Amino acid sequence: MTYKRVKIEEVSEPAETLSETKKEELVPLPAPYDTPESTPDFKPLDAAAKERYESDLDGTIAISIPKPKDEAEERALVEKFLAGLEKLFRVEDNWTFLQPLLLTMEHCARCHTCSDSCHIYEMSGKNPIYRPAYRSEILRRLYKRFVKKGGGLLSDFRNGKIRLNWQLVARLAELSYRCNLCRRCAQTCPIGVDNGLIGHELRKLFSQELGINSKECHDLGSVQQLRVGSSTGMNALVVKDNIEFIDEDMSDKTGIEVKTPWDKEGADILLIHNAGEILAWPENPGAFGVIFEAAGLSWTMSSEIAGYDSINYGLWYDDAQFARVALHHAQAAKKLKVKKIVLGECGHAHKALTVIADRILTGDLAIPRESALTVLEEIVMGDRLKLDPSRNDFPVTLHDPCNMVRLMGIVEPQRRVLRKIAPRFREMTPHGVDNYCCGGGSGFAIMSGHNFGDWRFQVAGRKKFEQILNAFAGEMDPAIPKYVCAPCSNCKGQLRDLFTYYDLWEKHKVLYGGLVELIVNAMTDAKPGFIEWEWH
Amino acid sequence: MTILILVTWASFAVFVLAVAGRSIRLLRLPPHVRWEIYPVAHEKGRAHYGGSYMEVPDWWLKKRETSVLGELKFMVPEILLLAGVRHKNPSHWLRSFPFHFGLYLLVGATALLVGGGIATALGAAPGVFLGNLTAALAYVGFGLGLLGALLLLLRRLLNGEYREYTTPMDFANLVLFIAAFAVALGAQVSADRDFALMRGFFAGLFGGGTFEIPALLKVQIVMLSVLAAYVPLTHMSHFFTKWFMYHDIRWADAPLVAGGRMEKRIVAALGYRPTWSAKHIAGDGKKTWADIVTSRGFEEESK
What we know:
The complex is a heterodimer. Chain A is mainly alpha-helical. Chain A has three domains: 8-210, no CATH class; 218-377, no CATH class; 386-522. Helices cover 44% and strands 5% of the residues of chain A. In chain A, helix 16 (347-355) links the parallel strand 3 and strand 4. In chain A, helix 6 (132-147) packs across helix 10 (195-210), helix 11 (218-228) runs parallel beside helix 15 (319-336) and helix 12 crosses helix 14 (283-294). Chain B is an all-alpha fold. Chain B has two domains: 2-250, Transmembrane di-heme cytochromes, Chain C (Fumarate Reductase Cytochrome B subunit); 270-301, no CATH class. Chain B is 64% helix and 0% strand. Chain B contains 13 helices and no strands. The model of chain B has no long low-confidence stretch (mean pLDDT 95). Chains A and B meet through helix 2, helix 3, helix 4, helix 7 and helix 9 of A and helix 3, helix 6, helix 7, helix 10 and helix 11 of B.
């Protein structure tokens, strides 16, 4: 059985679902997950959710768009969408991405070279609506018909059929959240067309014009971060308290005295973690403290709004929110007069502040930004710590966060460190800039409403799960503890949930964690056993 | 004959104007944020694994080294052999490569005809070798182009995945290529096997004497002229916009330089007045981007 074909123009047609994801179509996983029972059943949407929210794309809901009350409201929303569509192509409204967007709109040859590069399309069993070009082609036809107003009566002939109605708008909004924005498709396109960008631009249109976005990324994310200082909800007092507790714990655990400096003016480094680490994986910021203190670095953390949380969810859905948070990060560094900002183990924060914000932070806000991975490499390879690789004598593989690797080119520092401290390190296939997204990219790692979690683990995360199983093939015996090094908070969030979903820790003792934990685990000046092999 | 010359020159003019116009439009666009994808071919010593200068500690204190050779090593096989498609989509490459390589050979043949025409107009006689080379390039070019266009058309007609993404105009475009190449091939074989008449026509284009050519050759010239004028007006203009996609976006990894031209352009762009109407932006066409992003947004949202 295969999915039925879905024509572009069918996106406007009424149907219970446009193309539902089917468990029996999913690409089979390798052993020991090679039986259908290994994949849990996809939880159907409950009747109340179906009644209340738009859900006729694929039987799942990511962003909970309330159903319009009547036709008048539908029409108003469609009009608003159309207004947003026009703004997407206006210099004043979208200078930030206009050139890449226009080129992508104008030059796709529809050769489908991008299709097989997409882990979501591939692992769903090739659900046609997940093809990277599907949402792009819808937007392209809308752009040509309603923005360029090309073709007149011949528009169908020139641009292909498309009918704008609420059905299309609601499905397109959901569809923009069926892409991890990993841009593997863009990397593959021989012309340079960027279908990943289309997901990003659609999300922007919905957020910036219709106020439709993911609650986790907006209300609980960037809005909360700008309001209280962190998307975790921690204000400065709480975060300092938590870090103090972590420092004490680390000092006890390693025997190395750690006291995180706060708001130290003139320090060389302002270290900004993804604040989620502090709550979910305190050993990660703790390990940073141990390493930085042991290496004798001049560093500080900031208690300014957003100064202690490198998260910038605007990267995935909204230019204004993105710029606001990036400005706060830079202002925190400026206030402390540090030489540079060092970003902890968080992929999207790396790309957001180092690459994307590079053309936003002008004048005295253009403070140098650097990856923690290069700082760590300098420390480890410069022999500034005494390390015993035999303490890491267990299978280790490395996950490449898309934002750090494919989209920023930080490929080797983490590998050089692992080759030095992890004797049983092995690569995933493929890896480096060709690696696959963990399935939690673009905000999915924090989105699990309705049955979106099932989709995230069965479809979006399936390729990564396959890669991990293959990396440890032959060593799945639970007597062998195994470690997936994922130097990124969002990726770790996805791996935590993915492993739980498939019971990977309980059944096969596969743990995940960051790079710093492995470094501290190998430090001979620290008490042995930093990695405790406990699920968290 | 004057009409034929006018058609050819008009086609050339449309081609140049279309390429220039589209390029100028792209160049006049405001700066965009950095949006590169690795590997970036000019990263010296790192492009082979996709690394960037950001792998270097304190990279902003060090000289950034780029390599034009690195770009060429990527671009030459990419342009000539469609290396990306060959690697990532081999079944499509079997159809697309002959089509594109045929076009390249025809561009080569045209260049030789133009060179020969100018030389003749200036009183020099192009040698036999150049004449034979022109014919060889053109025959192979027409043949490959025709074969590729036919295979592409068949794929788009017979393969549902491709058919659903192909507009009627895309089909028409392929038919236009097939018709033009078939007529050209037929005309040359039947009426101008050694391209002597065509060389005479190109000499005539540059005032190098009069020429007489049969009707079929005239049809060929008109059809190819229409095609040359038409292509840069369509999405097929990727033959030159690809430069922007790679150099302005995919490989545009240059960091902002304080006081530099890019910084000035960014500052100007921050003065644009957006009209996005969601509450957290509340763009009214009066506030600038700078105004909006230096507010925290949630105040507007809670109103």
